[in-house]
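Hypothesis: this fold can be encoded by more than one sequence.
Test: take the structure tokens below, design a sequence, compare later.
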């Protein structure tokens, strides 16, 4: 930047003079900035209009060109408080009768209050011994097709019981505030109901102590009672063999299930042992190759402690040492010691891993030996692969037989005397929903039924003898509203485009500079700029092209049933050139539309045709929509260098022009600064020359005695 002197010698207002000299060039920069601002506003106007055009195409035309958009049906029910209905496209028109006999329920058990023997508060960590239970027992949890036996004793906690309930496929919680268990099936319906039954006296005692034993009522037919009742039928008093024979199928299934479980666990153990052995061999080989032998973990610990002590001593010595040479020697010793410590640490880690792998191998061997008490494992090599098979031992079979016999015997006792297991828990049995549609019975584990295109959701049971009328028919209102909403969207766009095209001229109005804005109020600036923005698309050729294409497509005729039909054949017309308001001359109105003040009192031809001749209406509007959709797609296709796909205006060119303005403004401002600096330099040189002349004149005057 040039040195700027303000007429110190000349007395001239050089600042004003220079600003006047550069004003012309500054005006040129301002003109370019105004042109860019105007272009930016034009871009925004087109972006807004483009969004509305795309919405018309995607929200309406995209679906209205297919007959599926018009295949809407509606179902009405005489008692909406009892049932709700969703109507599918394939639902049949007609009137049906419905009865809701029963709603689906979810199995739910509310436990009795659990009381500790000492009167204290029961928590998740409370043991059965704290509830007065000392012996062991067995409990069966059955839900759906799952049956799980759990063993409990005095050390079993409330938390353990919750875990077992959840593992069995139930939702369960112990509310410490109310001191109760809450148990819930995960799904509604009879098939998802659950039972919690004792298999022996010990299990019964545990259930009662936990508040999980309900008062059984044979008449309720709940899952718990059914479980006892089912097993009691297998029991033959005094005859174990006959009892087991009655349950042989279940026994065989349980034996096979446990056999498969043991086999799967055995194969996992074989794999884990092999992996541990492989890693053991790798570590041993590593040290054998190095000619070293691993010490024990304890030996490495001692070595590492000694080395760390030595390092600490050397570090203290280093802190106290002042002699440079001795200090350097200590530092070298420390580096070596830390290296040795690191090597010891690495070897210690390997020793620890070797120990861990050895323990894993030993445990796997022990677990596999335990499994072999219950199943005989056979190993066969087939195509180089080891194939394992297992058969139950007498021990496993005996355990299963004992379990089933004990349960059958205990169940027989319960059925003979239900009071034996009476408790304070309350159970809501899971049940299926049941409805009758046109006299045919349907059941569901939920309250929802999908039947012949209709989806019923039962809300309340009907009264005895009550028949709900279900009427399915064409959704004429839906079709009418779709056409109406489409026309509303179209009219709004076409009216806006006409308004923009026919806008008053803003000739002589240009965007304001910052200085110009400062001279006006905020409202004045806003009003001034609105004048410009409203006229941005006045007589715009692209706008005219888009608008004309839309108008032509909407006025086109299409052959339906051998006859060329137009929108006016459906009671849809413009108001006429002289009747319509300015910029609304190409808007379409539906005769008889109650929301349209211009046509509200006229006969509603469109609604009548939808009701009486829907095929004609659908055929016409699918063709109209397809034609309009295609025309809009053609107008918004990508043009290299000019527009992007989906754009109805030259967005690419406008952006390029905007960017060019940015570069041009930057170049103009640089030249303006250079021009301004040039004049400042010239006036500075002039001031300097005048100063020298004044100095010389003063010297001459002094010599002459002036």
């Amino acid at each position: 930047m040039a040195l700027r002197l303000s007429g110190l010698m000349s007395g001239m207002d050089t600042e004003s003079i220079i600003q006047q000299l550069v004003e012309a060039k500054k005006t040129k920069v301002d003109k370019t900035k105004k042109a860019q601002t105007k272009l930016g506003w034009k871009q925004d106007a087109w972006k807004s209009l483009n969004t509305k055009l795309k919405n018309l195409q995607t929200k309406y035309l995209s679906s209205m060109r297919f007959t599926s958009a018009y295949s809407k049906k509606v179902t009405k029910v005489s008692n909406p408080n009892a049932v709700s209905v969703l109507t599918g496209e394939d639902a049949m028109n007609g009137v049906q009768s419905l009865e809701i006999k029963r709603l689906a329920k979810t199995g739910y058990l509310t436990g009795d209050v659990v009381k500790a023997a000492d009167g204290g508060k029961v928590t998740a960590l409370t043991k059965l011994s704290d509830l007065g239970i000392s012996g062991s027992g067995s409990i069966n949890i059955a839900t759906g097709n799952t049956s799980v036996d759990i063993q409990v004793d005095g050390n079993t906690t409330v938390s353990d019981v919750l875990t077992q309930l959840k593992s069995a496929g139930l939702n369960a919680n112990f509310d410490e505030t109310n001191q109760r268990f809450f148990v819930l099936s995960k799904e509604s319906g009879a098939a998802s109901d659950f039972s919690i039954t004792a298999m022996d006296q010990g299990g019964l005692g545990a259930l009662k102590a936990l508040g999980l034993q309900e008062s059984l009522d044979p008449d309720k037919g709940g899952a718990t009672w059914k479980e006892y009742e089912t097993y009691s039928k297998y029991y033959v008093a005094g005859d174990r063999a006959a009892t087991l024979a009655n349950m042989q199928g279940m026994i065989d299934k349980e034996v096979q299930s446990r056999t498969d479980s043991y086999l799967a666990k055995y194969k996992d153990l074989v794999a884990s042992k092999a992996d541990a052995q492989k890693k053991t061999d790798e570590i041993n080989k590593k040290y054998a190759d190095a000619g070293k032998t691993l010490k024990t973990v304890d030996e490495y610990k001692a070595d590492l402690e000694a080395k760390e002590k030595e390092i600490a001593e050397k570090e203290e010595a280093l802190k106290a040492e002042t002699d440079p040479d001795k200090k350097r020697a200590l530092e070298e010793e420390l580096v070596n010691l830390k290296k040795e410590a690191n090597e010891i640490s690495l070897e210690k880690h390997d020793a620890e891993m070797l120990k861990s792998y050895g323990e894993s191998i030993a445990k796997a061997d022990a677990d596999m030996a335990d499994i072999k008490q219950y199943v005989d494992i056979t190993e066969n090599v087939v195509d180089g692969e080891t194939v394992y098979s297992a058969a139950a031992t007498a021990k496993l079979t005996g355990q299963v037989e004992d379990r089933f016999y004990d349960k059958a015997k205990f169940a027989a006792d319960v059925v003979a005397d239900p009071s034996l297991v009476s408790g304070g828990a309350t159970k809501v049995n899971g049940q299926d929903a049941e409805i009758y549609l046109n006299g045919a019975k349907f059941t569901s584990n939920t309250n929802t039924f999908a039947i012949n295109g209709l989806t019923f959701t039962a809300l309340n049971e009907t009264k005895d003898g009550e028949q709900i009328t279900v009427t399915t028919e064409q959704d004429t209102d839906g079709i009418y509203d779709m056409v109406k909403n489409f026309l509303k969207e179209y009219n709004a766009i076409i009216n806006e485009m006409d308004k923009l095209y026919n806008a008053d001229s803003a000739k002589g109005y240009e965007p304001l500079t910052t200085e110009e804005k400062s001279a006006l109020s905020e409202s004045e600036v806003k009003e001034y700029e609105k004048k410009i923005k409203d006229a941005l698309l006045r007589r715009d050729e692209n706008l005219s092209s888009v608008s004309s294409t839309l108008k032509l497509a909407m006025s086109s005729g299409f052959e339906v049933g051998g006859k060329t039909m137009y929108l006016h054949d459906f009671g849809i017309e413009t108001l006429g050139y002289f009747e319509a308001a300015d910029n609304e001359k190409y808007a379409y109105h539906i005769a008889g539309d109650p929301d349209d003040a211009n046509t509200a009192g006229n006969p509603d031809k469109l609604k009548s045709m939808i009701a009486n001749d829907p095929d004609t209406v659908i055929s016409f509007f699918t063709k109209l929509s397809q034609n309009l959709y295609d025309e809009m797609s053609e107008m918004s296709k990508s043009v290299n260098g000019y527009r992007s796909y989906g754009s109805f205006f030259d967005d690419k060119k406008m952006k390029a022009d905007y960017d060019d303005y940015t570069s041009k403004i930057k170049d103009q401002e640089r030249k303006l600064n250079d021009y301004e600096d040039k004049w400042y330099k010239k006036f500075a040189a002039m001031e300097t020359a005048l100063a020298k002349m004044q100095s010389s004149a003063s010297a001459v005057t002094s010599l002459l005695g002036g």
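The chain has a mean pLDDT of 91. The two ends are 41 Å apart (CA to CA).
Hypothesis status: open.
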